[in-house]
Write a structure and sequence with these properties.
Order of helices and strands: HEEHEHEEHH
Largest sheet: 3 strands, antiparallel
CATH architecture: Roll
Protein name: CBS domain-containing protein
CATH superfamily: CBS-domain
Radius of gyration: 15 Å
Helix content: 25-40%
Number of strands: 5
Oligomer: single chain
Pfam families: CBS (PF00571)
Distance between the termini: 34 Å
Keywords: CBS domain
Number of helices: 5
Strand content: 15-25%
Length: about 140
């Protein structure tokens, strides 16, 4: 789990989230109100929900493009359970919450850097990367 995380507020602009992503070389930033995680904004959210719609990222708030009520884990969650949850829910990042407070984030990269989890990370990525089925 990555414990040193940067977050944004829902009322900040898309530009602020993009600046953090650029500075940290990451593709997602948790969205918090106080210390409570209320969403997550990804580079994909920015492209599909802002840029592709011709919206101005300087005036568009994060709240209008973020994924609300993200799937979360806990610090005491077994890494295998986290990988299974990420695979089942097709997510690449799992905010970690303790006592209603954001304390970290687990990414597929975090799983992959530990030798014993490489296969599990690969399996999760395979599940997450499956094309969606028509509804």
């Amino acid at each position: 789990m990555t414990r040193s995380i940067s977050a944004v507020r829902p009322d900040e602009t898309i530009i602020e989230a993009a600046k953090i992503m650029t500075r940290l070389n990451v593709g997602a930033v948790p969205v918090v109100e106080g210390q409570k995680c209320v969403g997550i904004i990804t580079d994909r959210d920015i492209v599909l929900r802002v840029v592709a719609k011709g919206m101005d990222p300087r005036g568009t708030t994060i709240q209008s493009a973020m994924t609300k009520d993200p799937i979360t884990g806990t610090p005491d969650m077994d890494i295998h359970a986290a990988a299974d949850l990420m695979s089942d829910r097709q997510i690449r990042r799992l905010p970690i919450i303790e006592k209603d407070r954001l304390v970290g984030i687990v990414s597929l990269g975090d799983l992959a850097v530990t030798n014993i989890y490489r296969n599990e990370a690969g399996d999760a990525l395979g599940e997450i990367s499956e094309p969606s089925r028509p509804m």
